[in-house]
Amino acid sequence: MNQKEPLLNIQNLSVEFRTIEGTVYAINDLSYTLNSGDILGIVGESGSGKSVSSLGIMKLIPNPPGKIVNGKIIYEGKNLVNISEKEMEQIRGNDISMIFQEPMTSLNPIIKCGKQIAESLILHRGLKKKVAFEQAVEMMHSVGIANPEQRAHEYPHQLSGGMRQRVMIAMALACKPNILICDEPTTALDVTIQAQILDLIRHLNKEMNTAVIMISHDLGVVSELCERVIVMYTGCIIEESSSQELFENPLHPYTIGLIKAIPKISKDREPLQTIEGVVPNAMEKTDGCSFWPRCKDVMLRCKQELPPMIQVKQDRKVRCWKYVVGNRHEGI
Amino acid sequence: MERLRFIIKRFALLIVMLFGVATIVFVLTKLVPGDSAVANLSQRSLSDPKIVEAYKVKHGLDQPVIIQYFIHIKNVFKLDLGTSMRTNQSILYELKRCFPATIELATLAILLSTIFGIFFGIISAMKRNSIVDQIVRAISVLGVSIPSFWFALIMLYVFYYKLQILPGPGRLSASFSAPVAVTGFYMIDSLIEGDFLKFIDALKHLILPASVLAAFTMGLITRTTRSNLLDVMSTDYIRTAKAKGLSKVSVIVSHALGNALIPVLTVIGLGFGNLLGGMVLVETIFNWPGLGQFAYNSVKSLDYPGIIGVSLLIALNYMLINTVIDILYGTIDPRVRCK
Ligand SMILES: Nc1ncnc2c1ncn2[C@@H]1O[C@H](COP(=O)(O)OP(=O)(O)O)[C@@H](O)[C@H]1O
Ligand SMILES: [Mg+2]
């Protein structure tokens, strides 16, 4: 498996937004790979660049002001950064699909749900309207929508949030894509609905062998679903690990803080731990590690030089000076 | 079923509103200072109290106001709008005579402004901030702010006097006689007569005044289309449509336009209502025997039945158009229907 070409290979991706107030460095030198059939988790506080990086894969970053300034996104031997808009249109919704955080606003309010799903099938599979609609109904059934024949004729406002997210999933999976990107798919939903949607995604991943990129600011969601996790901070990957190891033995001070900040249900109520300070402004580019102002273990070197990505062991990477062999603790 | 109930409800509301309008119009005419007898009787007749008395009896002006009001309401719903003090013809007859001329003109004007307004709006939004966008926006500002009488004179000067490619004021050239009135629309009546040349002549006479009238509404429609389309293009569901792999054109045509044009409907409706009220200045300059001219003459001679008739007709236009727009809203936007 490891020797095989990865399904998706992102190398040194950088994205900037040139706004009137200044340049926002949203993604800085992002690299990761996704193997077919995998579920990869991406976590990080809001503003850390999770959405922008996934929109980058879809080439849907609003432009202007956003622009991919550097890097490659290799999918099936093609660099998506360079290909034409026409070629990209054939990949979107067909090879790579995406579902979004806001199920309430992500569906077109004046088009029937069934028709919105059928549209992808008409576009990519060349199906006749009627056949596509029938397949859309089937698809709605397989994402667990009761009464799909009736629901398909309803408009989005007639459905609950959870139902709409199921419609979004049905729409994204209609053409059996190789990759499904889920950008915080459950953040706007109730906890019980959230669990159902995650179950559904896991089930569809097994059944259709669709690789999933699961984005969340919620470590709980990611730990439940993913084999491998990437932790992002200010547009950088700062740690990459298997999900289990990340929780048992987090390495980066930021990850340690994140895990401590998860509310636990226990008998004696410990006060919740938080990471002090705020996410820095993405308009300022520092020379050092962008986490140092909030870091408990900060060293002089952290302020001067960006730490490299360090391979700690097989499938375990961290971007922190603490783990550089021979690095002395130089104090603050 | 749901849709039918919605439509019936809208029409029931229409009748209630008509009642309200009839009341308001009556109150207004009573509040306006000025004696209609003075305005309508000659100096000699005025000096004879008997004639003045007879005039007042004839028009019910001797009754108590409250009685006048009930008579007024009853008559409105019987479509008996009284007799014009000015022309001695029934108001219904007068309105039937002049309203088709206005409808014909207003319809062409609203068609022109809708087609060009939406087209320019889309172009402008798609080529946002480009030179094309700048030009379209300048034209739409011009359209909204240019005084119609001035624009009308310029158009006449250029196309009639200088270039001589379009006819001057009036509905038909002198060489044609007015077609037999079936609908009152010259373009349709001339076709019914089978006189194609007359049809062309009627159309040519419509072009200048319709263009002048269209300018204002077109400016509004362009601006509304542009800004709504830009708003819609940045919504989440448009992002979803793009994520499906739809091309830019498909996204606009099948996902953005429907949503963006909903508010534009209101602008079109208001614009049409406005035009149907008869544009006094443009109708005067183009010697167009429409509602605007009739309204102007009625006001000038304090012809109460005339003023009331015109006001009711204009209000009815607005209400009918609003009802139609509401129903269209409900047809396009499923969320409106269930409210
Ligand atoms: N359209 C935009 N214009 C300017 N800056 C943007 C835009 N979209 C995102 N950003 C910036 O990019 C950074 C990453 O945002 P995002 O990917 O949405 O974060 P996340 O999804 O992790 O919460 C943020 O600093 C945000 O302000
Ligand atoms: Mg996000």
Automatic annotation (TrEMBL), chain A:
- Identify a single GO molecular function assigned to this protein: ATP hydrolysis activity
Q: Which SUPFAM superfamilies match?
A: P-loop containing nucleoside triphosphate hydrolases
Cited SMART domains: AAA
Q: What keywords sit in the KW lines?
A: ATP-binding, Cell membrane, Membrane, Nucleotide-binding, Transport
Annotated membrane topology is:
Peripheral membrane protein
Query: Which residue ranges does the record assign to the ABC transporter domain?
Result: 8-259
Please give a single GO biological process term from the UniProt record.
peptide transport
Which terms in the GO cellular component ontology are assigned? plasma membrane
- Tell me the first and last residues of the signal peptide: none
In terms of PROSITE patterns, this protein maps to: ABC_TRANSPORTER_1, ABC_TRANSPORTER_2
- Domain of life, per UniProt, equals Bacteria
Compartments annotated for it: namely: Cell membrane
Protein name per UniProt: ATP-binding cassette domain-containing protein
Q: Which organism is it from?
A: Alkalibaculum sporogenes
Automatic annotation (TrEMBL), chain B:
Pfam families registered for this protein in UniProt: BPD_transp_1, BPD_transp_1_N
Q: Provide the transmembrane region boundaries.
A: 12-32, 105-126, 138-160, 202-221, 260-286, 306-329
Q: Which GO terms describe its cellular component?
A: plasma membrane
Principal subcellular localisation of the protein: membrane
Q: Where in the cell is it found?
A: Cell membrane
Q: Cite the SUPFAM superfamilies for this sequence.
A: MetI-like
Q: Which residues form the ABC transmembrane type-1 domain?
A: 99-329
Q: Which family does it belong to?
A: Belongs to the binding-protein-dependent transport system permease family.
Name of the protein this chain belongs to:
ABC transporter permease subunit
**Organism per entry:** Alkalibaculum sporogenes
